[in-house]
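Most newcomers find our protein records easier to grasp once they have seen one. Read left to right, the backbone structure tokens trace the chain's path through space. Nothing more is needed to start thinking about how sequence determines fold. An example says more than a description, so a record of this kind follows:
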Amino acid sequence: MANISRRDFLKGIAAGAVSVGAMSAIPTMAFADSASQTPTEAIKSLDMIPQAYLNPQLPEEEFRTHDMELKAIFSPFKIGNVELHHRMVKSAAGSAAYLAGMTDEFLEYYFHLAKGGVELIFIESVDFLEVPESGEYEAENRAYLEKLVKGCAEYGATLGYQISGFGMGENEMTVDDIHAKQARMVQVAKGLYEVGFKVVEFNCAGFNMPAHFLSRFHNTRTDEYGGKSIENRARFVTEILEKLKAECPDLAIQCLIDCVEENDNIANNPTIMTLDTDVTTPHTKVLTIEEGIAAAKLFEAAGCDSMHLRIGPLGHHVAQFGSDLYFILNGVEGCTGFGTQYDFTRHFQGKAIGNTSGCGIALNIAAMYKKELKIPVGAVTYMDPAHAPDFFEKALEDGKLDFFLMNRPLTVDMEYVNKLREGRLDEIAPCTRCLHCHSGSNEMNAMFCYCRVNALTQRVMREGGPATYELPPAETKKKVMVIGGGPAGMEAARVAALRGHDVTLYEKRGSLGFMLDFAAMVKGPHENLADLKKYLIRQMELAGVTVKTGTEVTKELIEAEAPDAVILATGGQRAALEVDADVPVIEMERFMFEKMGDNVIVYGSNAQAFDAALWLTVHKKHVTMVTPSVADDFDIQQSQHAKRMMTTALYALGFNSFPESSIKSVKDGMATVTMDTGIDTVIPCDAIVNAADMLPDTSLLDGVSVKETYAIGDCAAPFNIALAIRGGNDAGRAV
């Protein structure tokens, strides 16, 4: 039965990832059961490791339907005195919290969310938004805040602010310290209320002080703010709520909590990860759903107007608000980031939705809270009505919750709400769940914090980025030739055409987005790459781009067409792997379609190499990675969060890697690998997959007479989809 469930899941890939045109370009699989089998049918027939059957996923066509009118989603409700006309609320997490000071970029970010139809926008803790302890804003700060509030209000949006108290220290605080901290939080909330904010949210989740007071795991106090009593542990927050409601009765208050906790980093010690203690005892004392409901009732009684719920693993911060990350590995759904795997029929008390690739993971838990509370209940993580309209509409109709907290979908497409209201779902840019938007060791570093799909996020109005959100109209209409139908080319064509140019895109294959099709087959449905392809194609249709497929562009064709500008987006080239081997050397683009033995070397360590290594491992191959790159560059093209999930899962499954190494030879099923130490190591090898880094190739532009030329994406600087789309957007704006 497990095989059937898993194969049913893979039907979703077959249906959604590969178009009819693209299918003809994919080679017949050497291991197909019959000549009539399609590649995806042959893939479905392959056996996989036990981990692949632990959390079987529903076929996407079973939960991504759109037959219902979205009446519940676009129905009114209230949080305190704040009246809203739809059920989508912008959560506080987001890139704007990391911007440098009182900038125009900060303002425009929120103005565009409001303009796009979001009616309640929460802003993450930012120092310059908080009233000083003196009780009075500096004149410049106050004027800036009033401009922010007024600008959003012009589009019908209300602002909320999240108060976090980030950090630990709850056990060392005296009672006087606690009262001072509470008073400061009340002061911050009152200051924001006075300048026009109508809602505040207390972040009682994650690694924030209110969460630590609430936690049986973290809170070891023995006085009235600790101990085993839920009333005592909730007291830090309830006293704040009571004081604030007494002083600002019209200010709406929301509380964010982990609605259920789980043990992910089971090696850590309950004494809170000190280095000199016994680390053999696993985490205990997680917050249960029932405890969370009890705390929520206390918050409600103290004046809380709405609840914001998310699931809460103890060890992995990003998975607390982006728990769809558990589904980023195709075939190891439930990966934790610690080399272990959740069983969603057991973990999180068996109440998390674990068969929809993370979509709406907390809906059933939210329903348990809503049954016990009188105030509105909202939930976060992959709450994306455009992704699965009926699924989310029915959740509201069934009374599971009252509203959705959303972040990534709204920053990917700031017109999300308006487009959804107008029924233009096929025009909504999809979030691809890659978490590049929350990556890098320094959130201010836009090189490692960006959106894969929206080239403006964390770039607009910055040095080197687009000057405005809006597209400047072309001063002179030009004939523009775009060569290549991948993400870079399609984005460039879309933007150039929207600016008023006459744009024709050429693709040598019979369909567009071939590598997106291929990537979707490797990665599975979680990253919505099939949706990204459909979106880019639809955008070109709307912009009036002429598309010519099955046309390979030569220099002669360029000269004959005589365009004013050429944008080259033909992708990079991978050099052939020269190795003395008596086993097959298989190119990356064919690795799923070739018959091979059990022991496989993947040569390379980029994101494609790691995706291939995971796919092969899931399909019962013993994989060793050999790469000339240093270990610090492993999987660098993916977000740090995807990389963490990938590497911990692979190593736990027996994967091995040799950085700064080379394949010396392969004879009689054994490969000799020269390591970075200069010592040769011998490992079994039945096949080699060449996933070496791509090399740029702009030779098609050499010698052409066109004066204005651009090379973008992998043909210019091979890296990833995000930078390809960024390059396309920049070229479309520059032409």
